[in-house]
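In the previous lecture we treated proteins in isolation. Real proteins rarely work alone, and many bind small molecules. This record shows how such a complex is specified: first the sequence, then the SMILES for fe (ii) ion.
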Amino acid sequence: MLPLQADIHSHLLPGLDDGVQSVEESVQLLRGFSELGYKHLVITPHILSDFYPNTPNGIKKQLNAIQEAAEKEGLALKLEAAAEYYLDEVFFKSLLADEDLLTFGDNYILFETGFVNQPAILFDAIFRMKARGFKPILAHPERYEYMYHNYELAQELVDRGALLQLNLNSISGYYSAPARKVSEWLIDKKMIHFAGTDCHNQKHYNLLKETIKLPYFDKLLKLDLLNNTLLEA
Ligand SMILES: [Fe+2]
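The predicted 3D structure, ligand included, written as tokens:
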């Protein structure tokens, strides 16, 4: 059983993004999460204007569908939905326009950026999120190419009030060798606030079961991760 009992990043709502595509597939993975010891999952479909124009209503509908299915299966999991916001001009405008955004726990908001270049609006967006009372969490910092050669940036993001969420499978080198290197550096520097599975499918889940046997996973668990604080809410 994992001591990590809450996950804050996955794509287990069917048909909304590049994650799970059916209720059956979702339930199978939920059962797997439950077997690993998870009690609470915050499921975070991509919101990306052109590719995944998900809305709070559409997300809620799919959440209800899998909650019902999980209940029928007798799974003791608390399921919640938020989003993984892609940082672009559309998201930035919705921040400025005071639009309702999907949050979880202590007003946390999960966001990602493009993988190659550091967005020009990165710091400004963090400032705006904080100004609106959100606690911004940057998804998988270790996966961005602009982070591979600029570890100081991670410190600057934290100094500016961003929380960092590591993808567990980064520890195994699944995404890339540099992403693994950055993840080890972030763990060594104790700069991870949340661990996330970013689980999209069975393949990610199977790998997760291997990742949790690795020494850096044990090292990660020794940090003051905020995951389990969600269980108290
Ligand atoms: Fe994701």
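Summary for your notes: Residues 9, 11, 84, 139, 198 surround fe (ii) ion (CB under 6 Å). The longest strand covers residues 108-112.
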